[in-house]
Amino acid sequence: MSLLLSMEDCASDEENYCSDRDSLDGIENEEPEFQCAPPKGSTTKVITKESLLAAQREDLRNVMEMLSLREHHARTLLIHYRWDVERLVAVLVEKGKACLFAEAGVTVVEHQDLDSSLHSIVMCDICMEGVPGGEATRVDCGHCFCNNCWTEHFMVKINEGQSRRIRCMAHKCNSICDEAVVRNLVSKRHPDMAEKFDRFLLESYIEDNKRVKWCPSAPHCGNAIRIEDDEFCEVECSCGLQFCFSCLSEAHSPCSCVMWQLWVKKCRDESETVNWITAHTQPCPKCHKPVEKNGGCNLVSCICGQAFCWLCGGATGRDHTWSSITGHSCGRFKVEGEKKSERAKRDHYRYIHYYNRYRAHTDSFKQESKLKETIQERVSITEERDSRLRDFSWVNNGLYRLFRSRRVLSYSYPFAFYMFGDELFKDEMTKEESEIKQHLFEDQQQQLEANVEKLSKILEEPFDQYSEDKVMEIRMQVINLSVITDTLCHKLYECIENDLLGSLQFGNHNIAPYKSKGIERASELTACWKSNNRDNYLPSDREASESDRPSGSGCSDESGCSSRKRARKDGVGGGLFDLNMPAEVIDRN
């Protein structure tokens, strides 16, 4: 395939290039020193420890405003629906508010507070003892038990890891207890456990949210990544780690997550060693150790002293001639044993074929990564000369296009190993269909490979020693090949997504889409204060006094921060606030 590109097209494509920071993370997380600024309107956000509270309260405020709920009710709904606001709204529209609340265990019932009967005796149905009204707590569902029973119940649930959804103790009551009640009672006896409870509630935004996942860096950087689009994508954390958001392993597109996990396991375990042993050795009939034949005679001796026939594996004596073994006759070969040995040989050679090419492009990437410093030196030398050449961005753009293409080529071989093998798609395609699709894929792969090698060779040219005309010629070649490799990468992905994976009926294999500018670097989520008049949607919160809060009728104030996709209903008031301060201090301020 030939691609004809005009100089104007090349120049326009050169302007659109951005420095890429791709690397083959599976082998070595090497990162180019050149970095590009995060793209405007990034769809992925980095959630740090400082911005986690703001990120959580953003969704909380949306639900509170939409349903006129207090914070703990909104949190209960969001935890139940795994912080998926769109799903929550869909259930609300489809089934109504009553069903929405019932499924999540949210109970909004007006009940009489215990303040009016503080000196009366309340019978606890758990311990069956009468306690003063001031030592009992009534929750939203209306059930009332003594504080000691509530505290023991909360502590057990927190220790069991169920602190995000602690249900009422009453029989067959599915109502979720108010977090303020839990915090107030537990903190009196075990302040450390109350802090643990608050941490679990805060981290539920990440643990239970399908749009948010922890960065898998080791040691852990403490960041989480939130996406807005398809979960089958590759992202880059602010710590520099690039990974697949779906399976949290290294970025491996165009391999699907299932293919990559199988490939990693195949490369790590001893399965291929076992295949080689099966294909090239015979087990000793006495000690059962594998024996390799190093001569032409079919009478083999094990180190244990046992002699046996190489053809059938049967134990024999040591007397033999060139044509036969004394007292032994193999008769016929065992067809099944022969087929098994041949199959093991074929599978082993096939694996070695794909692995060697996967490793070759990985090693090429490592060697080409050393070009960064060399190219910087050459650019510096050329700029010092009195020359009309001032712009050398084409060198960096070509270098990062080389990195990006090497990455695609490297991971395309594990993809081909499973796509055209018998392990995953044996029942999806006939042998003829598989061969046709394999030829189509390999044609695309070879074209990309050839142009990547050309680009690599040209970038290694010592252009600082050439004349200006020669440098201009190299510049146009680099720009042309950069555009060609980018186009071929797009075509390879189209072939994979439409002609190969798109035609599958039973398998569900998704890959991260190809992006010319490389893996998107997540931008930090900004923590900001959003002013709202809470009386507009929470009239009862202002009326709740401090004494009401243990009984579940109180609620703390909330703050949030709007992201790119969330429309603000109010203006931004106030300034930045310190999220390291306790929530109660922020609320009072």
TrEMBL record:
- EC number(s) stated in the UniProt entry for this protein: 2.3.2.31
Its domain of life?
Eukaryota
Keywords from UniProt, A to Z, are: Metal-binding, Repeat, Transferase, Ubl conjugation pathway, Zinc, Zinc-finger
Q: Which cofactors is this protein said to need?
A: Zn(2+)
The region called Disordered is annotated at 536-589
Pfam families cross-referenced by the UniProt entry: Ariadne, IBR, Rcat_RNF216, UBA_ARI1
In which residue ranges is the amino acid composition biased (Low complexity)? 551-562
Which reaction(s) does its UniProt entry say it catalyses?
A: [E2 ubiquitin-conjugating enzyme]-S-ubiquitinyl-L-cysteine + [acceptor protein]-L-lysine = [E2 ubiquitin-conjugating enzyme]-L-cysteine + [acceptor protein]-N(6)-ubiquitinyl-L-lysine
**MF term (GO), any:** ubiquitin conjugating enzyme binding
Q: Which GO terms describe its cellular component?
A: cytoplasm; ubiquitin ligase complex
Q: What pathway or pathways are given for this protein in its record?
A: Protein modification; protein ubiquitination
Annotated Basic and acidic residues bias: 540-549
Is Repeat set as a keyword in this record? yes
One of the GO biological process terms: protein ubiquitination
> Its function?
Might act as an E3 ubiquitin-protein ligase, or as part of E3 complex, which accepts ubiquitin from specific E2 ubiquitin-conjugating enzymes and then transfers it to substrates.
Protein family membership: Belongs to the RBR family. Ariadne subfamily.
Q: What is this protein called?
A: RBR-type E3 ubiquitin transferase
The root-end lineage is:
Eukaryota, Viridiplantae, Streptophyta, Embryophyta, Tracheophyta
